[in-house]
Amino acid sequence: MATIKGRVLSVASECVPLIKTGGLADVVGALPGALKPLGWDMKVLIPAYRALRPLVAEWPEVWREEDLWGGEGRVLAGEVEGISILALDAPHLYDRIGGPYTGAGGDWPDNPQRFAALSWVGSRIAREGLEGWKPDVLHAHDWQAGLAPAYLTYHGAGGVASVMTVHNIAFQGWAPAALLADLRLPGAAFNSHALEYYGGISMLKAGLVTADRITTVSPTYAAELMRPEFGMGLQGVIAERASVVQGILNGVDTKVWSPENEGEFAYSAKAMAGKAAARAALSTEFGLDVPGPLAIVVSRMTDQKGIDLLPAVVPDFVAGGGGVIVLGSGAPELEGAVQDLARRFAGRVTVRIGYDEALSHRLFQGGDAVLVPSRFEPCGLTQMYGLRYGTIPVVAAVGGLADTVINASPAALGAGVATGVTFAPTDALAFGQALRRLLQLHAEPKLWARLVKNAMAQPVGWETSAAAYAGLYADIRG
Q: Is the same domain home to 315 and 359?
């Protein structure tokens, strides 16, 4: 067992395997195990939502907060799949029917207080420590934990350094200025250089201006956030703090996402027969007859993900011999648009609305390519799953997509390093050109086989990322 080099309190609203709505949960759940061999002991503080309360009910209480925005809160400590969890049990804030952030009527109106409570407790535990355990670093994730570094700054840090990670800057945790005192923030800090944000309060900005370091989930996204087309109003804040901003790529769980462990159709870069069998089974399952590359789309159906571009590019791709399987859900108009493609191109295009983890694995097993035409992508895991399974990524050259996929240009092919196809800008013209390139590559078996082997050889696990976080923590701890 590695010698303990330091301790980190990770504060977040989601954590796999307990609660997940997006990639944030994957990162928060993966980091503790990835850091452990490097000597860093991490505990994760998350809310005890309704679905979690039966699990944590018998855990020992390690912290009590008498006044937590309308009621009492307790922190219960336990372990889930090797992750040390601190669950904030405050039923008046988290014991509700619905998702972590929304109910039947949309966002919970008291979200500012709900996540201020998470941040408040996180900052107090960081500053005062638990019995026998005190962190060197508080690591806050996204707007839901954005007030934690602010509370350390305005109520005392206790020798604890702080890191603020931006997983997606589109979500900023806005609250009206009238809540400043209620959120336990100082009036003197309500100015454009600190807490004020377009006349209100942004919980994300509060973290960005007070944390010792800022990280994003890819180097390219870190640079993009200083530009107005990506920064979404916070580009000036990021640019002003550029000297403490660092991009660290996410990784994927290579034990869960492993073509070598996929049962009947398992395969590896040295023995690829299982992938061909998986493709045949997938074609049979969906009634497809695709002579060229079979592409998959596994995505939320939003404009951010570029799903609106599919109707403009799929017809030509199908005419060239390609086929597409779409798995996802989201905006009704986008669901309708891809369903219309399936009707128009029956036997070549099919759609499954919703999300199915087992089907997702079968798609990466049997697909030839995965399409990720995002307009912005902080990191992205889909393209990494594609690399892992030799399912060639076709991606927009933004954020983490640009950092993880090497375009099959003549130079990259000549050097033997290409792993996929990238395109820019994110529009139908460039996307269509990328799909034509995909058709050309797939038509040359030797070239395609080399591309697949290159993709599968790319490191997509957490080892490199964990080492970067460990280095960051070591650099800033008090």
A: yes
